[in-house]
Specification:
alpha+beta, Nucleoside Triphosphate Pyrophosphohydrolase, eight-stranded mixed β-sheet, 2 helices, 16% helix
Length: 134
């Protein structure tokens, strides 16, 4: 089975959780809601990749966020890719301002109560990753 290492970063502000809707321009999981994610490249440090993805996907610089928790890595399977496993490095960050600037990877965003995550069609196991951090 193939595996890919990724970071998944959740951002909270004023007790609300940021969800992003994946655009039709991305390769996988189109139209599903998720957190800020990206592939870990060339053995780089997961926290460094997480901060890069936050800047790329929502335009927030690393000095505007605070790391609250780094979770244990998790193996996630996806029905879209039966012979593939995602090794997820989860992070929880806070920020003071709810202003985000989306790039092409996401088409919409929502600030939600974390308990409302089940109301959204999300990427596989997103709520498991989230509640492992909370």
């Amino acid at each position: 089975m193939r595996s890919t290492k990724i970071v998944t970063s959740f951002v909270i502000c004023n007790e609300k959780l940021l969800l992003l809707k994946r655009s039709d321009c991305v390769k996988s999981m189109r139209g599903l809601w998720g957190a800020i994610s990206g592939i870990i490249e060339n053995g780089e440090e997961p926290l460094k990749r997480a901060k890069i993805e936050i800047f790329e996907e929502i335009g927030v610089k690393s000095d505007q966020i605070q790391l609250l928790k780094a979770g244990q890595e998790m193996a996630i399977s996806s029905p879209q890719y039966p012979d593939h496993q995602w090794i997820v490095f989860p992070f929880l960050f806070s920020m003071k301002d709810q202003k985000v600037l989306l790039n092409w990877e996401n088409s919409a965003y929502a600030w939600i109560d974390p308990q409302e995550i089940h109301k959204y069609e999300t990427v596989p196991s997103l709520s498991d990753v989230l509640f492992n951090l909370l």
